[in-house]
Specification:
20 helices; about 450 residues; three-stranded antiparallel beta sheet; Double Stranded RNA Binding Domain; alpha+beta; about 50% helix; five-stranded mixed beta sheet
């Protein structure tokens, strides 16, 4: 292996001439020039014209070749210095390739640690929301509901801007102040100070936001990027638990003597979709999202049944009776839904490039983004405001169904099956499978009793 003293002219003149072959007849694709001054330093040139300084040595009987760099970027002195440092490693019994790999891994680890310490709660929160949207819940084995995702978004919203409903300025969510902080700044002291401020704004909302944020921190512990950044003390510290508001279970529920006032107010709502929806919540005891997501294909007027997208039963959902009065309300909605628009409305649709077609949703909404009813609470609250009734939430209507059914002496298992509750006893879980006609008998009695108490005159069609 011939060696020469590296000079700028020799480095520039070195080429790998094409058309050369080895003794075995294989084409020569690269040519080497070796430095006589620095052991192991060479200049490699390829047939394509590329050049690079290299270092070649021997570690434990094995040949090691390491690329140093392009002669256009490395001077001869720099290449010689680099070759000497590599030879020093080899003299110590260290493979330069392994040494470089360790240095690279250590550098990447330092960069990752720095990024983990600098990442903000807001950035991690975005990934957490994407996780909630795309992964199934380990508890229910089903995707999370839109309402659950929206709850996280609203609680972390920075506020500002004008709300579509009411025209008032949007208020920031309780989690918004935490979004700008780094994950490493979430400590027990930080959470305690945050809770003190949010409790003064609303203790119930603060407790709810804290519960969601605690679930977020637990998720961070399972994430490869965020694990170990936030201490579990941030939510488990006695300092935090000591000021956390105590959760109080809601007990809003309609009383028997309040039914006439409630029905009168709700039946007087101008929007027939909202009016029927609210009455449906009370008559079926369904969850608000279940009833709002009802499609016309889920309604069977002939056999009087509704198929709910049940969060407990799973993909198949649950089938419950369609009572006569509720059926009359839905038939009215079906008639309105199937009625085509007038000429003026048809013209407006054509100008926008749209074409009319009946909605697939039972409780359709022309203003909602997904086409179905989204927020009936405001209409419900406005209707009840002049009546003097205590506040009743939409979930309180579901609670009212379960409570008021005791006046009809309906078996508890029947009520649970209609509402979609999990069986609470072995006998209910394994030995009770009530057919639809049996549920219908009891459900009709519940509706008839409610209408009697509300003094609503209704004659079911035979």
């Amino acid at each position: 292996m011939a060696k020469v003293n590296f000079t700028a002219a020799r480095v520039e003149a070195h080429r790998c001439a094409p058309g050369q072959f080895t003794k075995n007849g294989k084409p020569v694709n690269q040519s080497f020039l070796w430095d006589s001054k620095t052991p192991g330093l060479g200049l490699r040139a390829t047939v394509g014209g590329a050049k690079a300084y290299i270092f070649q040595g021997n570690v434990h009987g094995s040949t090691v070749r390491v690329k140093i760099g392009d002669p256009r970027s490395w001077t001869i002195d720099q290449a010689q210095e680099r070759a000497r440092s590599l030879q020093t490693l080899i003299d110590s019994g260290i493979d330069p390739r392994e040494h470089e790999a360790k240095q690279k891994a250590a550098h990447e680890a330092r960069q990752a640690a720095k990024q983990r310490q600098d990442v903000t709660v807001g950035k991690a929160w975005e990934q957490y929301l994407e996780h909630l949207r795309t992964k199934i819940s380990p508890k229910t084995k089903k995707p999370r509901s839109e309402r659950y995702i929206l709850d996280h978004i609203n609680l972390s919203s920075p506020g500002g801007g004008i709300a579509k409903r009411g025209g008032k300025e949007k208020v920031r969510g309780p989690l918004a102040p935490l979004m700008a902080l780094r994950l490493s700044e979430i400590t027990a002291d930080c959470m305690a100070d945050w809770l003190q401020v949010e409790i003064s704004r609303g203790p119930t909302n603060a407790a709810h936001a804290f519960g969601l944020f605690k679930a977020f921190v637990r998720w961070c512990e399972t994430h490869e990027t965020f694990a170990g950044v936030v201490s579990p003390d941030a939510y488990a510290s006695p300092k935090v638990k000591g000021i956390l508001p105590r959760s109080v279970a809601k007990d809003d529920c309609l009383q028997r003597e309040q039914l006439s006032v409630w029905f009168s107010a709700v039946r007087g709502i101008a929007n027939p979709v909202i009016s029927a929806y609210l009455q449906g919540l009370l008559i079926t005891g369904a969850r608000r999202e279940e009833l709002a997501a009802l499609r016309w294909e889920d309604v069977d007027f002939r056999w009087r049944s509704l198929t709910m997208n049940d969060k407990v039963e799973g993909t198949g959902g649950r089938t419950i009776p369609l009572t006569p009065y509720l059926a009359s309300l839905l038939q009215n909605l079906r008639r309105l839904n199937d009625t085509p628009p007038n000429k003026r409305q048809t013209t407006r649709l054509a100008q926008r490039g749209d074409q009319w077609e009946p909605s697939e949703w039972v409780f359709a909404s022309k203003t909602a983004s997904d086409g179905k009813i989204a927020e009936p609470r405001h209409a419900h609250n406005r209707a009840l405001s002049p009546t003097g009734l205590p506040h009743i939430s939409l979930h309180g209507l579901r609670r009212s169904f379960g409570t008021l059914s005791e006046w009809v002496e309906v078996p508890v298992g029947v009520v649970a099956q209609i509402q979609g509750h999990k069986p609470s006893a072995i006998a209910e879980k394994h030995y009770r499978r009530r057919p639809l006609d049996l549920l219908r008998m009891w459900h009709d009695k519940i509706e008839t009793w409610m209408l009697e108490q509300a003094q609503v005159k209704f004659e079911p069609q035979k």
